Amino acid sequence: MAIDSFPSLRNENDKVALVDGGNKHSYSEVNRRINNFAAGLLNGKADLEEERIAFFMPASLDYVTTMHGVWRAGGIAVPLNVASAITELDHYLNCAGVTRMIANKEHQESLRELCDSLNIELLSVENLLATEASQLPEILPERRAMILFTSGTTNKPKGVVSTHKTIHAQITTLIKAWSWTEDDIIPLFLPLHHIHGIINILCCGLWAGATVHLFAKFDIPNISSQVIARTFNLFMAVPTIYVKLIQYFDTIKPERVQKICDGFGAMRLNISGSAACPVKLFNQWQELTDQVLLERYGMTEIGMGISNPYDGERRAGCVGQPLPGVETQLFDEEDKPITEEGIPGEIRVKGDNVFLEYWDNEKATRESFKNGWFCTGDIAVVEDGYYRIMGRSSVDIIKSGGYKLSALEIEGVLLTQEDIIEVAVIGVEDDTWGEAVTAFIAVREGSELDYDSLKNWCDGKMSSYKIPKSIKIVEALPRNAMGKVTKPTLKKML
After folding, report:
1. Whose CA is closest to 379, among 411, 400, 414, 348?
2. What is the pTM of this model?
3. Packed helices 279-289 and 239-249: angle between N→C axes, nearest 10 degrees
4. 344-403, pLDDT tens digit by residue?
5. Across-strand partners of 424?
6. What are the structural domains, with CATH classification, of the chain?
């Protein structure tokens, strides 16, 4: 069976699919626009044959048009983070071998020099919209569909390749598990270069025939007003968002707080993910709104793999049980499966939801799989049938504010600062961020480097969410006999 469209994206469906600012767009309107854009991309070709096409834009009608248009024309979609620094974009575009970049008007000028240097054609959706649709290629499920960049244990993000089959599996398992219907209305303010925003909200919503309200950023007053108005019945966010909402409550009148909390309480579901939800936050949100947060576990390479139940007990501090169609198993350090509860091990995953490969990185792909299992690098324990995440096997992965960050990547940038001799970056547990990026730095003699000056220096050299939240100046970093920094000891130095 060819996968060339979502079931709800069809010309005869006049239900509202997207709300973009003050504009409402029906499924039929969005579908026709996608087809015309795909025709423009093809420009007489029969098939893009997995051409990598990047796009750089916030949540919008243009974003949806571009992503689906690339898929229907037989290309590989490469969504990019609009908060990325130029040096980061350079790596993504080079790594994926991108030939065309789609960006909205406000970003055209800032991207022009980079695209020219890489011989990438810079376009807008308006440039490519054909006046009418054309014959589109048959897209088989095994075809590559998307590259998302994720930070791993190397100093450069890897391109995670999903097929149409992968995306189909990731969507349909969540539709079933979280009981999506066409009656659902959900806000989307999470980053759209990330699996949470792309799959969990946008793709699930459009597949189910629901209505998705698009926000370029998390606008607390605006979204809160719509929560009061009972606009939404479904809400998905990262722990940092819930923390920011609770902090916002302290700045407004109690009667408005109550109205917002009542609005959340009236929803059918509130979901938290991307980083572990602190038990304290879980309990706070329940006390305020009477909503029991549904926490789940996933990553770019697998979509969602484990989830607390929609109907049933949702346990604080736990991520639940494997989703339909997803096979999970804990393994010990000797690669033996753990069959008893209470014994920690690495989560490994099998299923159609698992990615195909790391783009142009056969070595990393090979090392990520053992006997057909994808090795997540995350350590968990099973307690009464529920998975509880204990931490990561690599201390070089930091989950902060919904982002999965590479400590090594951040260290590499910081080491280019002239006063820094050596640096080690770790994640420190934090109620707001999940983990706060913290840098231990040894500086040259006479240096007056402090946090404010380093923060200013980092601006433009890395994305804002990667910039350390705090630093600690040290004489030297602790190292073992092999010269490797012993990161677990750093927290003791705080």
Report:
1. 348
2. 0.86
3. 50
4. 899 999 999 999 999 999 999 999 999 999 999 988 999 999 999 876 666 777 889 988
5. 440
6. 16-140 (3.40.50.980), 207-351+363-392 (3.40.50.12780), 397-493 (3.30.300.30)
